[in-house]
C-alpha cells in the first residue's frame, strides 16, 4: 500500500467536494442573462375570461424567475382567428432572441404547417397547451390539464349528491379540445347513471355576449321541468349558468370546471356544488417552465398532464375559503410545488423538482402528474460525485 499523508488525503477530498458543488446546478447558456435576453412567445387563440387572465399572469411571473435574470415574454392573441394564430407563430420565429414558443389552444388542422416550419428550420422549442389532435412533430411538446379527470371528479361528486335516473341539463361548446374531452366523459356518465338530458345549449362561446348566453340557458330551463342539475364544464359557462338558474328555477344545482377568485365567490353563494381544476396562475407558471426546459433540452417527456383537484362548495364553506390564496393554503397541491421545474428555475409554486402529491378534499386523490424528466436531482448528483471521489481515494491507497 502506498503511504499518503493526511493533508494529501484532505486535499483530495476537498477537491472532490468542490467539484461536486460546482456541478450541482448549471444554468443553460440561453438563460444566463447575456444580452440580448432570450424571449419566449405565447401565441394564444383566445384570451377571453378570467382563466386566461390569470393564466397569463402566472406565465409572466414565472418568466421573471427563469435562469439568472429572467426571460422576456411576449404574448399575442389571435382573437379566435385560426389563420392569424398560425401567422403569429411564424412571426414569433423571426425574432432572433426567440428560444421557445408556447401555443394556447388551436388544432392540428390549422397550426401544424407553421409549427413544423419553426421546428424544421430553427432550434426554437414549441410547447402546445390544449392542442386539438396529435402532435405535428416528434419535437413538439403537448400539455393540458387532465380533462378526463376534471370531468370525472366533478361528475362522481354529482352522482353522490344527485343520484341516478334524473333529468339533467347541459351547456358546452364542442369546438375546443378540452371541452370535447370533458364531453366524452359526460356522455359516458349519462349512460351509466341513466341521466335524461332534457336540453343542450350548444356552441356557447359563439353567443355575442354573456347576457345572450344567459338568456339562452334561461329559455332552456323554462322550457323543461324537474331538472336536477346542469353540467357546464368551463367556468365561463358555469358562472353564466348560475346566473340563469338564479333568474329562473333557483333550486337547480350546477356542476362546473376550473377555479378562480370569481368562481369561489359564486360557489359560496349559489347552487354551484362542485368544480375541478387547478389554479390558472400556477398552471401558467408550469407552462413557462415547460417551455424553458424544452428550450434547454432538459424536457424529456413529449406529453405532460397537469393535475387537477376536486373542490366542493362544502369544502369552501367549511374552511372559510374566499379566494385562491386561501385555497392554496388549504390545499397546498394547488400551487403545483416543484412540478416540471429545475434547479435554475425558481418555481412560483415553490418546492423541489418532483411530482406533487395532489390530494383532494374528502380523501379524493387527483392523478399524480407524469414527471417531466428522469434527470437525477442535484442532491443525488452531489452524493454520487462524493461517493466516486471516495472510491478513487481508496483505490489510490490500495495500489
The main sheet orders its strands as 2-1-3-4-5-11
The Cα radius of gyration reads 25 Å
Q: Which parts are unreliable, with pLDDT below 50 for 5 consecutive residues or more?
A: 1-22, 354-399
* Tally of helical runs: 13
Major beta-sheet overview: 6 strands, parallel
Quaternary form: single chain
Share in helix: 40-55%
Secondary structure tally: strands: 12
Q: Could you tell me how far the N terminus lies from the C terminus, measured between alpha carbons in angstroms?
A: 6 Å
Shape: globular
SSE pattern: HEHEHEHEEHEHEHEHEHEHEEHHH
Average pLDDT taken over every residue: 85
Structural class: alpha/beta
Task: Name the beta content range.
Answer: 15-25%
How would you characterize this protein structure?
This protein is an alpha/beta fold and 399 residues long. It is 43% helix and 16% strand. The chain contains 13 helices and twelve strands. It has helices at 6-22, 50-63, 82-93, 108-121, 147-162, 177-192, 210-222, 235-247, 261-268, 280-295, 313-318, 324-330, 378-398, and strands at residues 39-44, 72-77, 98-104, 125-129, 141-145, 167-171, 196-201, 227-231, 253-255, 272-277, 303-306, 309-312. The strands form two sheets. A six-stranded parallel β-sheet has the order 2-1-3-4-5-11, sandwiched between helices. Strands 7-6-8-9-10-12 form a six-stranded mixed β-sheet, sandwiched between helices. β9, α9 and β10 (272-277) form a beta-alpha-beta unit. The longest helix is centred in the C-terminal third of the chain and has 21 residues, at 378-398. The radius of gyration is 25 Å and the shape is globular.
Amino acid at each position: 500500500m502506498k503511504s499518503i499523508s493526511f493533508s494529501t488525503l484532505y486535499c483530495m477530498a476537498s477537491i472532490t467536494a468542490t467539484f461536486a458543488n460546482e456541478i450541482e446546478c448549471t444554468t443553460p447558456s440561453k438563460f444566463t442573462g447575456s444580452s440580448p435576453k432570450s424571449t419566449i412567445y405565447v401565441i394564444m387563440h383566445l384570451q377571453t375570461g378570467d382563466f386566461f387572465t390569470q393564466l397569463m399572469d402566472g406565465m409572466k411571473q414565472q418568466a421573471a424567475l427563469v435562469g439568472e435574470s429572467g426571460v422576456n415574454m411576449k404574448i399575442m392573441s389571435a382573437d379566435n382567428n385560426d389563420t392569424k394564430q398560425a401567422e403569429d407563430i411564424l412571426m414569433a420565429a423571426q425574432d432572433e432572441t426567440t428560444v421557445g414558443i408556447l401555443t394556447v389552444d388551436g388544432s392540428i388542422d390549422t397550426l401544424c404547417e407553421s409549427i413544423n416550419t419553426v421546428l424544421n428550420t430553427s432550434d426554437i422549442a414549441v410547447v402546445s397547451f390544449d392542442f386539438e389532435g396529435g402532435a405535428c412533430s416528434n419535437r413538439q411538446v403537448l400539455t393540458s390539464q387532465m380533462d378526463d379527470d376534471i370531468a370525472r371528479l366533478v361528475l362522481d361528486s354529482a352522482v353522490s349528491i344527485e343520484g341516478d335516473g334524473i333529468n339533467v341539463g347541459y351547456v358546452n361548446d364542442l369546438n375546443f379540445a378540452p371541452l370535447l374531452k370533458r364531453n366524452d366523459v359526460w356522455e359516458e356518465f349519462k349512460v351509466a347513471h341513466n341521466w335524461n338530458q332534457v336540453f343542450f345549449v350548444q356552441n356557447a362561446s359563439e353567443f355575442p355576449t354573456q347576457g345572450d348566453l344567459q338568456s339562452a340557458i334561461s329559455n332552456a330551463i323554462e322550457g323543461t321541468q324537474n331538472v336536477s342539475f346542469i353540467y357546464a364544464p368551463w367556468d365561463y359557462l358555469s358562472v353564466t349558468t348560475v346566473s340563469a338558474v338564479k333568474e329562473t328555477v333557483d333550486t337547480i344545482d350546477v356542476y362546473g370546471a376550473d377555479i378562480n377568485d370569481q368562481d369561489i365567490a359564486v360557489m359560496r353563494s349559489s347552487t354551484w356544488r362542485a368544480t375541478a381544476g387547478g389554479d390558472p396562475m400556477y398552471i401558467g407558471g408550469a407552462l413557462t417552465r415547460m417551455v424553458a426546459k424544452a428550450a434547454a433540452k432538459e424536457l424529456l417527456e413529449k406529453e405532460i398532464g397537469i393535475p387537477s383537484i376536486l373542490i366542493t362548495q362544502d369544502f369552501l364553506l367549511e374552511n372559510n375559503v374566499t379566494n385562491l390564496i386561501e385555497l392554496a393554503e388549504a390545499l397546498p397541491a394547488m400551487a403545483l410545488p416543484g412540478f416540471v421545474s429545475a434547479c435554475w428555475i425558481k418555481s412560483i409554486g415553490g418546492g423541489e423538482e418532483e411530482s406533487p402529491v395532489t390530494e383532494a378534499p374528502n380523501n379524493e386523490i387527483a392523478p399524480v402528474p407524469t414527471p417531466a424528466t428522469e434527470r437525477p436531482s442535484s442532491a443525488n448528483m452531489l452524493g454520487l460525485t462524493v461517493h466516486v471521489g471516495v472510491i478513487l481515494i481508496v483505490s489510490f491507497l490500495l495500489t
